Structure formats: C-alpha cells, structure tokens
Amino acid sequence: MNKIKCFYEKLLEKYGLQGWWPLLDCKGCNPTKTGSIQGYHPGDYSYPKNENQRFEICIGAILTQNTSWPQVEKALINLKKINAINPEKIKNMEISELCHAIKPAGYFNQKAKKLKIFSEFYINLKGKKPTRDELLALWGIGPETADSILLYAYKLPSFVADAYTRRIFSSMGLIKKYETYDNIKKLFEDNLEKDFKLYQEYHALIVEHAKNNKNKKL
DNA sequence: AACCAGGACGTGA
DNA sequence: TCACGTCATGGT
C-alpha cells in the first residue's frame, strides 16, 4: 500500500468516519462535532438529497473561505430564516440585505458578490453538473472552493488539497514545502482509487487531524 | 492582544 | 511567476 493510502487508514482508525459536508437540516444526523449544529452524517453518502441541499453546500463552500465553520453556520442560519438558501432569491435580493445576513462569516462585501455571481451561474446550469474549469472561471471561486463544490455538492472525485494538506504532508516529507495546489491534488488522485467517498473522508479527516494538532508542529 | 479560521483576488516588480 | 496587501468577523 502506498504512503498516501496508508496514512488515510491511520487517520480513519484514529478519528472514524467524518460525515461531511455538514448540512443544516438532516434528520438522524450524528451530532458529534462540538460547537456545531447537527449537520454531519457519518457513513451516509446519500447527501445532498435534493437541489436545496446541493445549493447549500455550494454557498457554504464559498462562505467558509478563510473562515471557521461555526461562523459559516450562523450565516447559513440567517439565510435560511429569510428563505435565501435559494439561487433565485440570492440573485434578486438587495445586496445590503445579503451582506447583513452573511455578516458573521466575515468578508461580507466580497462574499455577497461571490454569492450573487455563483447563484446566477447555478441557475444557468439548469441541473447540469459544472466542470472544474467553469467553476474556476467564476470570480470568487478558486481551486479549493471549486474542488469542494465538485466533491461534496456533486459527488465527483476531485480531491480538495487545502492548506492543512500542504502543512501535514510537507512536514511528513511527502511533498515540497511550497508545492503547488494542483500538484498536491494530483499526488493524491494518482495514489487513490477514484472514489468520491474516499476523497470526502480523506479531506475531512485531514481537517480534523490538523485541528487536533493545531498547537503541535506536526 | 496578536493570531488564526475548511481562500481568493489585485497589484507591482 | 512571486511576494505582498486586502478583505472582516469572532475564537483563543
């Protein structure tokens, strides 16, 4: 077994299934994460179950840019209260109202603009799956956000190589300290079977592991 | 009280 | 390409 896969097995044994992406409303979800609403669903890969949840994941991916998840949850709850976890609604609502709702997640001016742009794009998809290049072409969608959307909202095997991944695997000596995003992504995809469930768990486990060791140097 | 959080973009060199 | 600065709130 290669080192990439081997490390996955060790993380899984240590932390268990993570059940990402967290959703506001999923009955029977396992409330295991502290400081979080009951959004995780370990072992259940049937989410998103509808377009509503798919869109929620997409805007959550945008809102969580450089922001902790509990702050994003507050923003999502605000949006839900005004029936705004909906692309048509976000596209048409006042920008000031949108800014106010997502304020807890920070960068509200930029993120409101990003949500507007993405909502229009989402509407034009008409149910079709976006490509990575289409997502990257949008203002406000970078590689990590694009991969998160593909992997969690559309269940496509696109590995999310975030800052934690670079930190952990460079300290393990498996990649260079300043390896590019795309090269790290490729390393994982080359060493793992193309399975969206595996990609989801691995990425979530990396985040969990990094949080657990944030005071250590790894 | 600095520093970070499930980044991305704009600018100047 | 690359090094910085900017964006903003709330935790620790």
Can you characterise this structure?
The structure is a single chain. The chain is an all-alpha fold and 218 residues long. It has a single domain, classed as Hypothetical protein, domain 2 (Endonuclease III, domain 1, Orthogonal Bundle). Helices cover 57% and strands 0% of the residues. The protein has helices at residues 3-15, 51-63, 69-81, 87-92, 95-102, 108-125, 132-136, 143-153, 163-171, 181-191, 196-212. The protein starts with a helix and ends in a 6-residue tail after the last helix. The structure holds a DNA duplex (13 and 12 nucleotides).
Ordered list of secondary-structure elements with their pairings:
Elements: H1 3-15, H2 51-63, H3 69-81, H4 87-92, H5 95-102, H6 108-125, H7 132-136, H8 143-153, H9 163-171, H10 181-191, H11 196-212
The protein binds a DNA duplex (13 and 12 nucleotides) through α3, α6, α8 and α11.
The CATH homologous superfamily corresponds to Hypothetical protein, domain 2
CATH topology: Endonuclease III, domain 1
Order of helices and strands: HHHHHHHHHHH
First and last CA, distance: 23 Å
CATH architecture: Orthogonal Bundle
Give the low-pLDDT segments: none
Beta strands, count:
0
Q: How is the biggest beta sheet arranged?
A: none
Helical element count? 11
What Rg, in angstroms, do the CA atoms define? Answer: 17 Å
- The computed structural class is mainly alpha
